[in-house]
Amino acid sequence: MKVMVIDDSETGRIKITQIVKNRGHEVIEAENGQIALDIITNTSGIDLCICDINMPEMDGLTLVEEVRKRDWDKKDLVFIMCTTETSAGHKMKAKELGVRGWLHKPFKNSQIDQLLDFMTKEFTGE
Ligand SMILES: [Mg+2]
């Protein structure tokens, strides 16, 4: 899979990126929602975005909103939010935007593994 890791914390990105790369997937990193949106616009074949919420420039939920509201083939891009955020309002908004999952930080490496397994199965139909 081609996986985007979007987080303003470098340590946060490195942690997720290492797990994803160790599983043989390609990783594209972005340090905020605006940079991610630019990359998504110019990149084809992204399968999954693992995305922080609280970031400068553009937060994660605004990024999902921007992706959904455009008339393009990336409308249904799969997002999993990975955040310290616990607010019910944010979760509700994420649900409305069709966010597929929610990982609480700090997460266990095995949770990322499970997520990748699940998504790989979904994409390959195995
Ligand atoms: Mg953050």
How many beta-strand segments?
5
CATH superfamily: Response regulator
In percent terms, what proportion of residues is strand?
15-25%
Largest sheet: 5 strands, parallel
Stated plainly, the CATH topology is called Rossmann fold
Written overview of the protein:
This protein is of the alpha/beta class and 126 residues long. The protein has a single domain (2-121), classed as Response regulator (Rossmann fold, 3-Layer(aba) Sandwich). 46% of the residues lie in helices and 19% in strands. It has a five-stranded parallel β-sheet, with helices on both faces. Helix 2 runs parallel beside helix 3. The chain is globular, with a radius of gyration of 13 Å. The two termini are 14 Å apart. The model has no long low-confidence stretch (mean pLDDT 95). It binds magnesium ion.
Distinctive features:
alpha/beta; Rossmann fold; single chain; globular; 126 residues; binds magnesium ion
SSE layout and pairings?
Elements: E1 2-6, H1 10-22, E2 26-30, H2 33-42, E3 48-51, H3 60-69, E4 78-83, H4 88-96, E5 101-104, H5 109-124
Parallel strand pairs: 1-2, 1-3, 3-4, 4-5
This protein binds magnesium ion.
